[in-house]
Specification:
- With 906 residues, the protein is α+β, with helices and mostly antiparallel strands.
- The chain folds into seven domains: 166 residues, Trna Endonuclease, Chain: A, domain 1 (3-Layer(aba) Sandwich), CATH 3.40.1350; 95 residues, Arc Repressor Mutant, subunit A; 69 residues, no CATH class; 57 residues, no CATH class; 73 residues, Arc Repressor Mutant, subunit A; 271 residues, Nucleotidyltransferase, domain 5; 108 residues, no CATH class.
- 37% of the residues lie in helices and 17% in strands.
- A seven-stranded mixed sheet has the order 2-1-26-25-20-23-24, sandwiched between helices. Strands 27-30-31-32-29-28 form a six-stranded antiparallel sheet.
- β25, α20 and β26 form a beta-alpha-beta unit.
- α3 crosses α6, α15 packs across α16 and α27 packs antiparallel against α29.
- The longest helix is centred in the last third of the chain and has 24 residues.
- The radius of gyration is 36 Å and the shape is globular.
- The protein starts with a helix and ends in a 28-residue tail after the last strand.
- The C terminus is likely disordered.
Length: 906
């Protein structure tokens, strides 16, 4: 971002008026005017901009996000702000009505020599808006979209207003920018001088070497070295030519000038007499088209080509000039055009032929084939007149199309009267009743609508013979069945399973990324198993599991389990586990629209860790097909083979006491987590994945080797990282009270640093531990300092969830004067020490104790010993041998791999 002095110099250079300068200053100092959210078909999110030092919102990862990448890496862009303050738009509708309203553009952009607003929209959306009102949007002769009312508003300040369409996106460049992003923002050079010299010498010796060859030949270097040199422009690759993830198509040069020379000279050289180009073969006798004139090639030499015009004039062109004109598309082949038109016509003919038509044509050809060769026909059952007719049709088609087979096609399916037998007005009335009576939210029955339809025909004087039958009416409804009909009757959620999935004709952003750790999915689900307490054998219910999955390799990056419903705490722990195991986080994290993912804490944490956050559209489970499939795989492969699983609860009428999962429950939270990790990291990761053709572990390793380990993005899993992931309050800072310290969530915390006069009455950054209310952390003089509660002995080990339950219960008991009652730390501590509170909080404390056992497993310890056993009559008793208990190896747990449910690739 610009400093104040740089901003003032920029204003002077751009020659802004005082009014314009004040407006720019207001926009620069303002927060986004609104929070964006994706629609049913949009993936919204936040991008961590290094240029701006803040997160930038986007409403669509196919429109706004690509434009953000362009702003981030274009050198002409100085600053950009999302969702700037509203501007007033006034224009006249096509009907002559004056329209005026407040409007929020997508971005406000400061360029080197200009400044203004930018609106990003999809091309098809702009076309619809232009049809609706051409006075607001229109496509100019320069093939650029314009908004006259917005441009008039911007002109009064000397600003521009630009409409940016997704048709302007170069998706190859977008993929490459995303691929190199880790290297663009490296704080120090990643490549050693020796590796740089090796790579540069190879490129100098083989100018135009492919990236694939360079990756294999550059001994003593890594793929990170090469990608880093590309990002820092020490070697040149045309990022618009081909994706870097397809290295065999990328050519590497010493610099851009060498690349231009290579294209204009090296590629134009040839030693063959017959030159093959992507468009035309240059051989004598071929006809070509140049500038709408037909020319015939009469001679091809080593250095020149002779062509003859229709008038008989001879034209001589240098061979290199001719080839360049062919490559540029200025010279095309006449024969190719004719063949193209003919092939299109043949294709249309074959598409009209049914399977029976082809079968009949094959039969006819097999009979007349000897006849065509002049031989006698052996089959006497077919009249000679018919044989002559088939031969005649064959010869006619051969002369017209070049393929006599086409004349043998009968097209019986197109013969006869193809029109409907019902009168046109009857069909129109039937369609009207289906549209207005059946396809409504009232969800009327088919027969009820049919009766109304027949009554309407009878009232109109239509005879009974001409009234369609109920069967015909049902067929007409079925013709219209599908997504649109279900939406009209029961809404888009019910119709979601019928919504067509559109495979992209042109690749934009790959659904699963181009490499490991590019895209990661985080999601939660409740596990289908009842668990017991490891100390009291009390049934504590079903746990929740949180997975982080790598989209590229389908590898399970991290797993976390807890009894608490999904919250920011689960997000915090799965991020910690991922960094602990791998040292990395995905570049882009995709989540659903749960409240925990929209929390300020989670958004701030993702921004601090420099990850792009994307929200998949609401009620669109298929956007997380990877995570949903993995949940199903975990259930079928592991959970459903364990005692206490809840499959029987889906048939509640068949459930008896002997098969009740609560009576059969045996597993504890930490033990289940131990084996869940064993399954995820050692069983699932090493089995071949049907969508990959290899195991996730193999795909992950191969992708990392080819596309770089990116070690400079590693996060050290230390105390600083754990403090970084701790939550803070909404304000993030609190004032230091000289006598009481700082107050966080109604609890006061103190440390010796608060005695410093310079710290007293100042505001400090704070963080608290959601799993231990007895401690908190404040940022003083460049380091985090641990603080303790004044009632440490009471709050020690109490979790945030337990405090929330106690606070809620305390408020409930004082609900008669709730407006005057305030929950303070002392009152809360007194309540927590009462016997009555223990009864309220007992189950939560047992669950929290089990969760602490999970923390020990995460840190590498074994699960807690099991102090009970289950007898054959489902009775729980003490386990006398529990002192010597050790968790069995993975091989001792039987998982029936022959009965696994397979989730095909979506």
């Amino acid at each position: 971002m610009l400093t104040q002095d740089e901003f003032e110099l920029w204003c002077h250079r751009v020659k802004l008026s005082e009014v314009a300068i004040k407006l720019v200053e207001q926009i620069r100092s303002s927060q986004p005017s609104r929070l964006v959210g994706g629609g049913r078909n949009n993936v919204a999110g936040r991008y961590p901009s290094r240029k701006m030092g803040v997160t930038i919102q986007f409403e669509s990862h196919k429109v706004e996000l690509p434009f953000i990448y362009q702003l981030e890496y274009e050198k002409d862009i100085l600053e950009f702000y999302d969702q700037p303050p509203q501007i007033k738009i006034s224009y006249q509708s096509d009907e002559g009505k004056n329209i005026s309203f407040l409007y929020t553009p997508d971005f406000f952009v400061l360029k080197t020599n200009s400044v203004g607003w930018v609106e990003c929209k999809a091309e098809n959306q702009l076309q619809k808006l232009a049809e609706k009102n051409s006075n607001r949007y229109f496509l100019d002769s320069d093939n650029k979209w314009h908004s006259p009312p917005a441009e008039r508003y911007a002109e009064q300040f000397g600003f521009f207003f630009q409409i940016w369409s997704d048709a302007e996106i170069n998706w190859t460049v977008q993929r490459n920018l995303n691929f190199l992003e880790d290297y663009y923002h490296a704080e120090s050079p990643l490549t050693q001088e020796s590796a740089t010299r090796t790579i540069l010498s190879l490129i100098s010796a083989q100018s135009g070497i492919t990236l694939s060859a360079l990756l294999h030949l550059a001994e003593g270097t890594t793929s990170d070295d090469i990608y880093s040199l590309i990002a820092t422009e020490q070697i040149y690759v045309d990022l618009s030519a081909a994706p870097l993830v397809e290295p065999e198509r990328c050519f590497v040069f010493r610099d851009q000038q060498t690349a231009l020379a290579y294209r204009s000279i090296v590629l134009s050289q040839t030693n063959s007499d017959t030159i093959s180009s992507p468009v035309i073969d240059i051989i004598p006798g071929s006809s070509v088209i140049y500038d709408s004139n037909i020319l015939t090639i009469i001679f091809v030499g080593e250095t020149s080509v002779l062509l003859n015009t229709k008038e008989g004039q001879t034209v001589e062109l240098a061979l290199t000039t001719f080839v360049n004109l062919v490559r540029e598309g200025k010279i095309t082949c006449l024969k190719n055009k004719m063949e193209s038109n003919l092939s299109n016509e043949l294709r249309d003919i074959f598409l009209k032929a049914s399977e029976n038509d082809l079968k009949d044509a094959n039969h006819r050809y097999s009979i007349i084939e000897p006849y065509l060769r002049g031989e006698a026909i052996k089959d006497n059952n077919i009249p000679q007149r018919t044989l002559r007719y088939w031969k005649s049709k064959y010869i006619q088609a051969q002369q017209k199309y070049g393929y006599g087979y086409l004349g043998l096609l009968s097209f019986n399916n197109l013969k006869g009267n193809q029109n409907r037998k019902l009168p046109e007005h009857t069909i129109e009335l039937m369609q009207k009743f289906i549209d207005e009576e059946y396809e409504t939210h009232k969800q009327k029955r088919k027969f009820e609508v049919y009766i109304k339809f027949t009554n309407a025909l009878s009232s109109a004087g239509v005879s009974e013979d001409l009234i369609p039958s109920y069967k015909t009416f049902i067929k007409e409804i079925k013709k219209r069945s599908g997504y649109e009909q279900t939406v009209k009757r029961s809404g888009h959620r019910d119709a979601y399973w019928q919504e067509p999935f559109y495979w992209e004709l042109e690749l934009t952003t790959p659904r699963h990324g181009d490499r490991p750790f590019e895209i990661g999915h985080i999601d939660h689900t409740q596990v289908d198993i009842e668990l017991r307490c490891s100390r009291t054998a009390k049934v504590l219910g079903r746990p929740w599991v949180t997975f982080m999955v790598d989209a590229y390799s389908r590898k399970m990056l991290a797993a976390y389990i807890t009894f608490d419903p999904p919250s920011y705490r689960s997000c915090m722990m799965v991020i910690r586990v991922c960094v602990q195991r791998h040292g990395y986080l995905p570049q882009t994290i995709v989540v659903d629209n749960g409240s925990e993912f929209h929390s300020t804490y989670f958004q701030a944490l993702i921004a601090i860790l420099k990850c792009t956050l994307k929200y998949r559209p609401p009620s669109k489970a298929r956007f997380n097909a990877i995570g949903e499939r993995l949940f199903g795989t975990a259930m079928t492969q592991l959970i459903y083979s364990l005692a206490g699983n809840t499959q029987i609860t889906k048939k509640v009428r068949l459930m008896t006491k002997s098969v009740n999962p609560k009576n059969l429950a045996l597993w504890t939270l930490d033990l289940l987590y131990y084996y869940l990790c064993e399954w995820a990291y050692q069983v699932y990761d090493t089995k071949e994945h049907p969508a990959l053709g290899q195991s996730p572990q193999e795909a992950f390793a191969a992708g990392t080797a080819q596309f770089g380990s990116r070690s400079h993005r590693m996060h050290a899993y230390d105390e600083n990282f754990r403090l970084l992931t701790l939550p803070t309050t909404k304000k993030g800072k609190v004032k230091v009270n000289p006598s009481q310290g700082v107050q966080i969530n109604h609890i006061h915390y103190w440390c010796a640093s608060f005695l410093d006069p310079e710290i007293q009455n100042s505001y400090v950054d704070i963080r608290y531990d959601p799993f231990d209310a007895g401690v908190a952390y404040v940022y003083i003089r460049g380091q985090w300092v641990e603080c303790f509660s004044g009632l440490y002995s009471i709050f020690k080990g109490r979790t945030e969830k337990e405090i929330e339950i106690a606070t809620s219960e305390l408020r409930k008991r004082h609900q008669n004067y709730a407006q005057q009652f305030k929950v303070r730390a002392k009152t809360l501590a007194e309540f927590l020490t009462t016997v009555e509170a223990e009864e309220v909080l007992l189950e939560q404390r047992l669950r929290d104790a089990q969760m602490k056992n999970v923390f020990r497993v995460i840190e590498g310890s074994s699960p807690d010993r099991v102090p009970y056993v289950q007898s054959e009559d489902n009775q729980i008793s003490d386990n006398k041998d529990s002192k010597d208990w050790e968790p069995p190896s993975t091989k001792q747990i039987t998982i029936n791999l022959n009965k696994l449910q397979v989730y095909p690739e979506y």
